[in-house]
Amino acid sequence: MVFIGVVTAPVRAEQSGEPPVVVELYTSQGCSSCPPADAFLAVLAARDDVIALGFHVDYWDYIGWKDVFASPTYSARQKAYAKAAGRRSIYTPQMIIGGEVDVVGNHPMDVTDQIDLMRDRPVRVKLMLQRGSGDAVIIAAEAVSKAAQAEIAAPLLVQVIRYKPEAHVEITRGENEGHRLAYTNIVTKWDVLGEWQPTEPFKAQIAAPGDEPVVVLIQQKGPGRIEASAQLR
After folding, report:
1. What is the pTM of this model?
2. Whole-number pLDDT of residue 113
3. Contact status, residue 51 vs residue 178, Cβ threshold 8 Å
4. Which residues pair with residue 180 across a beta bridge?
5. What is the mean pLDDT of residues 144-151?
């Protein structure tokens, strides 16, 4: 991702409206409890009201199989969630919903219930993604009201995520040895574009080359509550 600059005029809008609920799965190919959660993430990814993201962590790699999608950056993000929530440990499979609630990832009913609750939260930030010329993506955001500006713990973080929609991996060692596993919405890149004070509108343009979908999250520091989310597939 390359930051191109601030834009002053919009182009063709491709996504706007009510923000979908973001579900982050923290998973590993070396974890025997993770495949059911990985499969459930594929179900969530098919929903229009959910942005499902698979963050592969690296702390299972020592037991004999190195997750080919893992990154210490994603492990650090999961640890930051735990610290913000006052927890001393992390685990897989874990789903973080809306940036606020953690649920065991292979408990589908619990996850679904939390998604329903998150969908009822008041919308405080409006986010729009637009395709510009070439590889450009235009990001525009604003608080929905003066009251929303006052409620939000500013500044917020504007983050850009790219993901690989699907992949299959033959596991030859570790707890899942002998299995060919399917993975969905595998995060390949996560960048913090910058901080934003919602007292003023936010507009920026980034370069997003390649075919991988683009996700933008606007989130409270911590990490905490995700105030807005959108994606271009």
Report:
1. 0.92
2. 97
3. no
4. 170
5. 95
Distance (Å, whole) CA 146 – CA 144: 7
Beta pairing partners, 137: 131, 206
CB 189 within 8 A of CB 161: yes
Please state, in angstroms and rounded to a whole number, the distance separating the CA atoms of residues 186 and 171. Answer: 16
Write out the two tokens for 19: 């923000």
- Neighbouring residues of 109: CB distance < 8 A, sequence distance ≥ 6: none
Burial track 72-105 (b if 16+ CB lie within 10 A, e otherwise): eebbebbbebbeeeeeeebebbbbbbbbbbbbeb
| End-to-end Cα, the chain, rounded Å | 16
45: three-class secondary structure by DSSP: helix
Q: Which tokens in the block code for residue 4?
A: 């191109």
CA atoms within 13 A on the CB side of 152: 29
Ranges 13-17, 112-116, 131-135, 167-171: which has the least confidence = 13-17
Q: What is the DSSP letter of 155?
A: P
70 CA to centre of own chain: 15
